[in-house]
User: What shape does this take?
Amino acid sequence: MTNANGQGKMTADKKEIESQESKTERLVAGLREKFRAAFHVEPAFVARAPGRVNLLGEHVDYNDGWVMPAAINRAAYLAAGPGDAGVVSLAAVDLGETESFRLAELDARRSLSGEPLKQWALYPAGVAWALQARGLAVDGLQAALTADVRGAGLSRSAAIELAYAVAWQKLGGWRVAPLEMARLCQLAENKYVGVNCGLMDQFASACGQAGQVLVLDCRTLEWETVPLPAHIAVVIADTNVRRELGSSEYNLRRAQCEEAVRLLAAPLPGIRALRDVSVADFDRHAHLLPALVQKRARFVVEECARTRQAVQRLRASDVAEFGRLMNECHLGLRDLYEVSCPELNAMVEAAQRIDGCYGARLTGAGFGGCTVNLVAAPAAEYFKRELETQYRKVAGRQGEIFVCQAGDGAKVLSQ
Ligand code: GLA
Assistant: This one.
């Protein structure tokens, strides 16, 4: 129960943080053991890189827009140490698989045994490739990976990339700024793994700060932080649904945005991305676009405007208006950008009906995955329970719902 001054909530919050901390300790201890079992030595260190949740500014990072993510207290953990010269040997603890490859043969995307690299190993291989391309020393490595950032929509892949990047940084004794590290990991994902993502996920995993929402201008790469108001809880709700068509649809959305820019450049010369188009200009020229492209572009143009407004609202601690903008964003993602799905809609609609919820929307790329909810802190426990019940009733499946703490970015843990 919560009393009027929110004390009940404080205790519940504290309990949740403590239980998450002891879970993390157990997870790291278990990971060290797996490392020892796989490589017969102690790991030299454990690197940790968080997942992220995005509060607003969805599908705009590849349109040069503004995003508002926070790093979360769920992460990828990598127990690591030096390996044989030029060789990377990996254990994917959660999959029960291993893989090895040579750093001199990254372009071949082949394992030591000559087979094509397993899909999951493309991420560390891609990171090694991007770091090498930047002239940074990348040495032989042995490592065991586990992650408690599961499901979709919380950037597990970016967390994994950053964990490897931080491990190679530690082993190589060099140092690059977190934002630069994020860009190298994005390069790995774009050019080596072949997923055309924007910078947001890697940025949040690299640059996260405890208690802060990050605001990134995806064109200038300038960024700042805005504190999350203390009376607010950010609640993540995983629908436990994942649509397979996710990455092909993602690439299609990007292509549609690019087409919109090409067509709008006739009346609006000088625009380089949808970020450059105001809502008023868009309204004037939208008729030049094919119907589907028009819907996609309208969402992005409006989302850019919404995000700029939302930054001001958050600075002013106006969570009611911030929440309203989140709700609006979900409608756009559902009806214009069409990246939602019935389970995400059910989760969002159920959340919006619960007392204490300021705003709810899908977070991340969509097509399944998670929603993000802005909730009055004293109501968070009630909200969690109620949402779980409502979602089970409407969607006929179990969701995973948790209060998240905005945390720090990727780093090597102290021993
Ligand atoms: C994925 C991508 C990000 C971003 C989001 C949508 O998470 O990796 O770059 O485009 O989708 O906002």
Q: What stands out?
A: The first helix runs from residue 7 to 39.
